[in-house]
Amino acid sequence: MAKRKLAVRNHRGQKAGRLLRTSDAPYRLLFEKNPQPMWVYDAQSLAFLAVNQAAMDHYGYSREEFLRMTGGDIRPAEDLPALLESVAKAPQGLERAGRWRHRKKDGSLIEVEITSHDLEWAGRPARLVAIEDITERRRAEQSLRQNQESYRLLVEQSPDAILVHRRGTIIFANTSAAALFGASSVDELLGKQHLDFVHPDHREAVKQRIQAFSVDFVSVRRNETRLIRLDGREIYAEVAARTIVYQGESASQLMFRDVSQRKKAEEDLRQSEARLNAAQAIAHVGDWSWDIINDDLTWSAEMFRIYGISPQEFDGKPASVGKLIHPDDVWLREKSVRDLLGGNSVDPFEYRIVRPDGHERVVQVLGGAVERDRAGVPVRISGVVLDVTERKKAEERFYKAFHASPEPTTIATASEGRYMDVNESFLRVTGYGREEVIGRTSLELKFWERPEDRATLLERLNKDASVRDLEITFRTKSGEQRTALDSAELVDIAGEKCILGIFKDITEQRSLEKQLRQAQKMEAIGQLSGGIAHDFNNLLSVIIGYAELLEEHLPQGDPLHKNCEQITKAGRSAASLTGQLLAFSRQQVLELKVLDLNAVVRHVEKMLRRVIGEHIDLQTALTPTLGWVKADQGQLEQVIINLAVNARDAMPNGGKLTIETANIDLDQDYVRKHPLQPPGPYVLLAVSDTGVGMEAETQARIFEPFFTTKEMGKGTGLGLATVYGVVKQSGGFIWVYSEVGHGTTFKIYLPRTTEAVGTDRPVSSVQLLRGTETVLLVEDEEALREFTATVLTQNGYTVLASERPDKAIDIAGQHHGPIHLLLTDVIMPGMNGQALAGSLVAIRPQIRVVYMSGYSGFTHPGLLDSNIILLPKPFTREALLHKVREGLAPVAESKAK
Q1: What is the pLDDT of residue 730?
Q2: How far is CA 699 from the centre of its chain?
Q3: What are the residues whose beta carbons fall under 8 Å from the beta carbon of 358, sequence distance 6 or more?
Q4: Bond preceding residue 861 cis, omega within 30 of 0
Q5: d(C-alpha 297, C-alpha 294), whole Å
Q6: Which of 21, 120, 198, 199 could form a disulfide with 226 if both were Cys (CB 3.0 to 4.6 A apart)?
Q7: 165 φψ region: left (φ > 0), alpha (ψ -120 to 50), beta (else)
Q8: CA-to-CA distance for 37 and 132, rounded, in angstroms?
Q9: Rounded to an integer, what distance in angstroms lies between the CA atom of residue 119 and that of residue 824?
Q10: Which residues contact 673 (CB under 8 A, 6 or more apart)?
């Protein structure tokens, strides 16, 4: 059967070949005259065997040229591999060979679709090919795609918001629509009902337009509609609609143009006009326009009210208005008109009018703009009239208010600056009497501490006619320097240009600002110092700890043992310095107790007498009924000692040192001058000396760490910094009062408390430092962790060490035996020590906790709670073991029971 079909196909191919070669055959005519390019090529060599006229016309080759070529000659070189592959795979019978590129004789490339059929030609296999040039069609398709893409981009990038909805449900939105309706993305709008974005007040009208649109299927012109965004904000937009085909189905396209700004501008304009009309009514301002050619006068409504006549009584003639002007002032109006018509400018002027009811008013005429024709002839004059009657009365009241003003106020001539009048506030602030000021200038009074302030004031006044809040320094009659904000304005008083000056004394305000800047500076320095001390404490713990371990393993006579002692001594000295830095930065942990400050002073008094020497007379003045304070006793003693030593150094030739205590109640008046301190009851500790004193520059820096006035090697500069930090951390504040040659007084204010005197935390009765318990050690500093683990292990403890809190939690969860104590650093990456303790207590309720920290960042505000056990850094081997035993004491006691 297959052989028969093959034979039939061969027969058809042979017949087709014979027909094409027979000149008188109809098929030959059909081939030659076919308007579609056609040819026959050898299936093996690809040589052209026959071409029709259409092929020759379309490709530009003659028949002879075609018959010398192959199919590869009309194809780009890069297409030949695909051609050969296609020929090799060509099936028998009809084949649609797809799209190809051909090159015409002129070199141009065209895109074609090929249909071919196998046949036999002169006993050889061949194929008959029909060509369809689809170049233009492809260009049209490409153009269509580009147009569609351009339209898509146009819609996407349109500044107008565009929505497409079908039966009310949004199925498309562009990015402008997302922005208009407050959506985070286009997807947030899809699936919503478009009417949900219409304000309820406009929704019914929009529904009616939709119904009309649905019936007529015509575009809806733009309508202004109030909308609601997703965030609830109302906006206004112009909306247009039309029917479109979207994704093969009918839909409605809505275009929105945001007109909220325009609406706002319209509303602002409406309100502005309303305010202007209201302001004109309040200010009694009217405008007028005189048509010179027709001698017609046009008035605004306010003009009628000013002149006291109705529009019906007004005939619009300037002569009628002249009858309402006071006879003595008519000449002023006539002169101004002559000046304007003559091209001269006219300054504002005033005249009196007499209303028909007999009441007299005063008006001021402003402006006088002249319109001229092309020949320069005046054709219209316009101006503004103000009813200044009330202003005249107000001027009288002004002089009364001038003298009653709480701010110093002056009036001086602009030409010479001589005081014409000053109020009582000026006299009170400057200390002068009125007779000493009137008729004199500020220079004659030596008012200006800085001459450049006066020069700046006059320069600005001459330039802008007014000055606002120029900061100046002035001198009172007694010579005291004060600071003020000076304002001045050029005014006209009785036809003379004058300077109205008002200044506000801000001396106290500037003093308070200076105090605030100083406090902020100290806070910044404290944060830096505390951070350095914290990092240094970790290093010192390792240095001191390992030096102590070495001492234990070296005999007393060994030279290395003495070296280790020196290392330990130096480390402890460094630890003392970091402690002072932490005290200054208010990051030192204080164990607060309710104290009798008098008892603290008496406790250190004997030691102070030895410290300051016999050449200084130490006296105390302690209030017997002194209130209690809540503070760290050791730190408070250190504060007194530091201040006493500082006083001793200020009295090298001897002097008097006084320590006083008192109950103080700070009221609102004090707080206004010192706003960084709250009012309330305080206990005062004052330390005064009769030493050399300090100038202002030194006083501004004495509490800064490492600042010292002593020569090199005789002071660390941390004594007063420590005092400052301890006082601040205890909730108090400190002030220094000093003058060169008149000594210094430090006043410390500590909050007075009504709490009862507490008891000390009981010290563990366990004296042994060794133990067999299991300790979970968490410390991110490797050297300190290794040292701590070594000490604990050497003293019998089982140590589970971790450098991270999360790893410590895993260890606690996987450890099968008991964990008696968590020994953890407070500040660590990822999780702090308190959070770690909370997590471990949740899974091991019996675990005890000891914190290690070089500063108090985890307490509030650096005060040690009674239930927290803290091992301060840097620590020694013995301190470590003591704190561990203290933390384990409840465990040991429960075992003993």
Answers
A1: 80
A2: 36
A3: none
A4: yes
A5: 9
A6: 199
A7: beta
A8: 7
A9: 95
A10: 508, 511, 512
Q: What is the DSSP string of 222-259?
A: EEEEEEE-TTS-EEEEEEEEEEEEETTEEEEEEEEEE-
> CA-based angle 814:538:589, to the nearest 5?
95
* AA identity, residue 92: Q
Per-residue pLDDT at 582 exceeds 90? no
The pTM of this model reads 0.35
Q: What span, in angstroms and rounded, lies between the C-alpha atoms of 663 and 643?
A: 20
Residue 552 has pLDDT above 80, yes or no: no
Confidence band (pLDDT; 50, 70, 90) for 245? Answer: confident
Instruction: Give the side-chain half-sphere CA count within 13 A for 136.
Output: 2
Between the two ends of the chain, the Cα-to-Cα distance in Å is: 109
Distance CA 181, CA 235 (A): 9
Write out the two tokens for 334. 């006539």
Q: Rounded distance, CA 284 to CA 842, Å?
A: 80
The DSSP symbol for 448 reads: B
pLDDT band at 283 (very low <50, low <70, confident <90, very high): low
CB 824 within 8 A of CB 833: yes
Structure tokens at 897: 């029971």
746, two tokens: 């430090």
For the stretch 180-232, pLDDT in tens is 999 998 899 999 998 899 999 888 888 877 776 655 555 556 788 889 999 99
d(CA 153, CA 143): 15
**In sequence order, what are the residues at sequence separation of 6 or more whose Cβ sits closer than 8 angstroms to the Cβ of residue 147?**
none
Helix (H, G, I), strand (E, B) or coil at 643: helix
C-alpha count within 13 angstroms, C-beta hemisphere, residue 554: 16
274 neighbors 289 (Cβ within 8 angstroms): no
The reply to whether omega before 874 is within 30° of 0 (cis) is yes
Record the tokens describing residue 516, joined without a space: 């605030």
Q: Give the integer Cα–Cα distance in Å for 472 and 436.
A: 22
Within 554-628, residue ranges assigned H as helices are: 559-584, 597-612
- Structural tokens at position 316: 């619009």
Please give the Cα distance from 765 to 570 (Å, whole number).
32
In this structure, what token pair is assigned to residue 251? 């839909």
Contacts for 825 with CB less than 8 Å, ≥ 6 apart = 778, 779, 780, 781, 833, 851, 852, 853
Cα 572 to Cα 546, 653, 783: the distances in Å are 13, 34, 18
> Which neighbouring-strand residues pair with 290?
297, 381
The pLDDT of residue 896 is above 60: no
Alpha helices in 316-387 (DSSP H): 318-322, 330-341
* Gyration radius (Cα) of the chain, Å: 51
pLDDT at 850 over 60: yes
SS (H, E, C) 683-698: EEEEEEECCCCCCHHH
Return the half-sphere exposure (C-beta side, CA atoms, 13 A cut-off) of residue 697.
2
Q: Which two tokens stand for residue 532?
A: 């350095």
430/419 Cα distance (integer angstroms):
14
| HSE-up (13 A, CA, CB side) for residue 888 | 27
Residue type, 83: L
pLDDT (average), residues 30-41: 91
Query: 82 and 89 in contact (C-beta within 8 Å)?
Result: no
**Which residue type occupies 626?**
L
